[in-house]
Amino acid sequence: MDYTLALLFSLLQALSLCTAAPLPTEVVKMKSKVKWMAEQLVVRLDKDLQVPAGLTLSQPADDLDGPASIVTILEGYNCLISDTFNGVSQVKLDISSLTGYLNQWRQGHCSEQRPKPPVSGPLQKLQSRKEFIHTVSIEALMRVKEFLNLLLKNLDHLETC
Q1: Angle CA(50)–CA(131)–CA(40) in degrees, nearest 5?
Q2: What is the pLDDT tens value at each position of the chain, 161 positions in all?
Q3: Which are the contacts of 158, defined by CB distance < 8 A and separation ≥ 6?
Q4: Rg of the chain over CA atoms, in angstroms?
Q5: Which InterPro entries does the record match to this protein (predicted)?
């Protein structure tokens, strides 16, 4: 009898470890909407962004650390994209829509509002070279695309406030 009870208890423990609690419906909807917005933006960047041959990004992508850092990074790159750069007005609008949605969601669903993190990494380096408007715009657009692809592979980072 004790053996059966111990076996049953072990089995229940193992099952509880294997089953994760379901995500609230609003989190699933938010992740789905962010995924759709990011995918549309990547498609637009693929279509509209003419990258000079041989131009590659040297540093790795910026870090994902929840919605606050995602907003900070995307807003930072969006500010670096020149309004006079050909064909970027819709891209800039799409980035603003995505960051606005994430900000609104965060304010409504995150009880503890973490401050926006300081800018670091590739974004910080690019901000120091603002005088080269078109070069910075091209790299910022490339970084946005790289960052969105990273986000699409790691949508779980959106669950962390």
Answers
A1: 35
A2: 454 444 444 444 444 444 444 568 888 999 999 999 999 999 999 888 877 666 667 776 677 778 888 998 999 999 989 888 787 899 999 999 999 999 998 888 877 766 666 666 677 777 767 667 788 888 889 999 999 999 999 999 888 87
A3: 27, 30, 31, 34, 66, 67, 70, 102
A4: 21
A5: 4_helix_cytokine-like_core (IPR009079)
